[in-house]
Write a structure and sequence with these properties.
Layout: E1 5-8, E2 14-17, H1 32-44, H2 53-66, H3 68-71, E3 83-89, E4 97-103, E5 111-112, E6 118-124, E7 126-134, E8 144-152, E9 157-160, E10 165-171, E11 176-182, E12 191-194, E13 199-202
Parallel strand pairs: 1-9
Antiparallel strand pairs: 1-2, 3-4, 4-11, 5-12, 6-9, 6-11, 7-8, 7-10, 12-13
Helix pairs in contact: 1-2
Length: 203
Amino acid sequence: MKGRDWLVNEKGQYESVKSVKEWDLLRENYRLYRFLTEVEDTLNSVEDQTSCLPEIRMLVRRLIVNSYWVKNQSLEPSPKTGTSVVLLYDELGFPLTVQTVTFAPGTLSTIHNHGTWGVVAVLKGQEKSTFWKRTPQAEFEDKIERSGEVTLVPGDIISLTPNAIHSVEAIGDEPTVTFNIYGETCSKERFEFDAVNHTAKNF
């Protein structure tokens, strides 16, 4: 599963960044618990967790390359919402969110940031990720403008800084399945944006 790595920041800037070769990532018996331990150790070794995004992208790619189980942890999307979520690990006090998300074809998310760093790997289907930047004005403090987009396919991994703003849409004829890992959310910094009315609200 060859793929590209992307980095998106709070200014709406996005770039393709260096990816690790898959054959350098092959491991025997590399399971979710080992991945979680390595991510936690990586984060605990620094003050600025965002600086760890290259290492976390590498660990996510290692997990995807080696774990058949993770690649098959998904549900059919809900007929009502067009999405479904499988929480892969849930322990009281554990600060990370680790899940797979399924989008039915044509499903479009809100425009949002996460209030924390995030790394998302596409496992199946295609996803159009649109990026936005804040362009505040006196009358509209929360105005945003579209800054670009990329289409992600299986094997692609995208990483976002805490205030990076994006929206995603499942495109193509089959559901899109992604593996997602996020840091500890700062709820006061997590927003949903309205690009028409130039407003933002916590969610």
